[in-house]
Amino acid sequence: MSNPVTVHLRYEIDADKLAEFREYGERWIRLVNRLGGTHHGYFLPSEGDSDEAFALFTFPSLADYEQYRIAAATDAECVEAYRFAVETKCIRRYERRFLAPVFE
């Protein structure tokens, strides 16, 4: 039996393009869920730093995550979501971490 993997993304965003980043996040929540993951949401600035956002999503295994990455590279909606972020420049940079979740 494989272990689930949760991906933690930390984004440095353009604080003046929060609406664009929100749209980007809404797209990816649906896409990750459609491609076999469970998206736990995007977390946008509220108090504190205005240019930092986070996302969390889980796949049943690292192998399932890797299959998602392969599928996302050619999926038309995923490619469009990436293009949207590039064109709007709502994301300055991001970091990806892999975590071992503990669920009840």
Q: Could you list some keywords that capture this structure?
A:
NIPSNAP; alpha+beta; Dimeric_a/b-barrel; 104 residues; NIPSNAP family containing protein; four-stranded antiparallel beta sheet; Alpha-Beta Plaits; single chain; 3 helices
Detailed description of the structure:
It comes from Agromyces aureus. With 104 residues, the protein is of the alpha+beta class. The protein has a single domain (5-99), classed as Alpha-Beta Plaits, CATH 3.30.70.100. Helices cover 41% and strands 31% of the residues. The chain is built from 3 helices and 4 strands. The protein has helices at residues 18-34, 62-74, 76-88; strands at 5-13, 38-43, 52-59, 91-99. The longest helix has 17 residues, at 18-34.
Strands across the major sheet, in which order?
A: 2-3-1-4
> What is the name of the CATH class?
Alpha Beta
Ends distance: 17 Å
What's the Cα radius of gyration?
Answer: 14 Å
Helix and strand arrangement:
Layout: E1 5-13, H1 18-34, E2 38-43, E3 52-59, H2 62-74, H3 76-88, E4 91-99
Antiparallel strand pairs: 1-3, 1-4, 2-3
Structure summarized in a few sentences:
41% of the residues lie in helices and 31% in strands.
